[in-house]
């Protein structure tokens, strides 16, 4: 297990180095510069040059890359050109919205997908299976931003159960914060639950065809007992893969939903930073999100080893 863990840590570190080089290189080739954007079209060249020197944009690219990486390792993500605020402070403020939203949406997706996938697999080829598969097809095809607007019309404007948008802050209490995130979480969870249910159903059906499942049934276990005791655990590896990918998407890819509900999350921060040419924010936030994705992948790999002992022996 130690060797398996060490190999995964080496892979994580190499992935981070490669990702940082790619992110920095992409930002470098983007046309324009923050100084010209901040000062406007009519700014004098000497003024622009002075601001670029103040922001450190005149230094060679390798020097700026090393300064950026060194600062991130030390917890210093730089100063936002637009907000004049440390990027780390901006990230913490926005992460307080995006992280609970991602966890909330993933929890809802799991609560819906697991019973649906289990029921579809247990009743393969029957009416319940067809109903679940039809519902998941609709969930995948339905655009989440359109579903989000329907949720606002129904639950915010008509019945007035949840707020239509905005976020009050966690200092106002847990319930107001959860109420503000409920509709966005449902909108995000719908397609993820549909995908997860279909993957779980397929994995369970494949698992239920194995010899050890037939042996368990021959020993007197019911179909439900066999499904839960033997089938579910062995079908979890592809499900965990999808869940890891979904969490990464929910954390970094909820820009449209955050804009629909006016949520001050990481997605909106990246969008605003790109439009404002705040490159240090774009670089740092994207790198943090890449780190989150790689870390989730690493944790999923560890979960593989915990579920399947053969992976530990193979490593």
Automatic annotation (TrEMBL):
Residues 95-300 form the ABC transmembrane type-1 domain. The chain crosses the membrane at residues 101-121, 142-161, 181-200, 235-257, 285-307. It is found in: Cell membrane. It comes from the Bacteria. InterPro entries: BPD_transp_1_N, MetI-like, MetI-like_sf. It is a multi-pass membrane protein. Keywords: Cell membrane, Membrane, Transmembrane, Transmembrane helix, Transport. GO terms for molecular function: dipeptide transmembrane transporter activity. Coiled coil: none annotated. Gene3D superfamilies: MetI-like. It holds the Pfam family BPD_transp_1_N. GO terms for cellular component: plasma membrane. Its main location: membrane. Belongs to the binding-protein-dependent transport system permease family. This is Peptide/nickel transport system permease protein. The lineage of its organism: Bacteria, Pseudomonadati, Pseudomonadota, Alphaproteobacteria, Rhodobacterales.
């Amino acid at each position: 297990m130690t060797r398996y863990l060490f190999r995964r840590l080496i892979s994580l570190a190499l992935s981070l180095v490669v990702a940082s080089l790619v992110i920095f290189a992409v930002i470098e080739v983007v046309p324009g510069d923050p100084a010209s954007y901040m000062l406007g079209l009519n700014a004098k060249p000497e003024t622009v040059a002075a601001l670029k020197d103040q922001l450190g944009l005149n230094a060679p690219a390798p020097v700026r890359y090393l300064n950026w990486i060194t600062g991130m390792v030390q917890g210093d993500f730089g100063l936002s050109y637009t907000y004049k605020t440390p990027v780390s402070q901006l990230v913490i403020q926005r992460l307080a919205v995006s992280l609970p939203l991602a966890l909330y949406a993933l929890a809802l997706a799991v609560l819906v997908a697991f019973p649906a996938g289990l029921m579809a697999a247990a009743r393969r080829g029957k009416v319940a299976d067809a109903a679940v598969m039809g519902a998941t097809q609709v969930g995948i095809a339905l655009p989440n931003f359109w579903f989000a607007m329907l949720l606002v019309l129904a639950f915010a404007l008509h019945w007035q159960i949840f707020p239509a948008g905005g976020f009050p802050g966690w200092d106002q209490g847990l319930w107001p914060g959860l109420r503000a995130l409920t509709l966005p979480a449902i909108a995000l969870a719908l397609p993820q639950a549909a995908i997860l249910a279909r993957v779980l159903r397929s994995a369970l059906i494949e698992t239920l065809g194995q010899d050890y499942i037939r042996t368990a049934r021959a020993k007197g276990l019911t179909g439900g007992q066999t499904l839960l005791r033997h089938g579910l655990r062995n079908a979890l590896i592809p499900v965990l893969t999808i869940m890891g990918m979904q969490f990464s998407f929910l954390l970094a890819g909820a820009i449209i939903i955050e804009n629909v509900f006016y949520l001050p999350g990481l997605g909106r921060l990246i969008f605003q930073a790109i439009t404002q040419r705040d490159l240090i924010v774009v670089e740092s936030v994207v790198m943090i999100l890449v780190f989150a994705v790689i870390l989730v992948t690493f944790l999923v790999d560890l979960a593989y080893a915990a579920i399947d002992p053969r992976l530990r022996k193979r490593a």
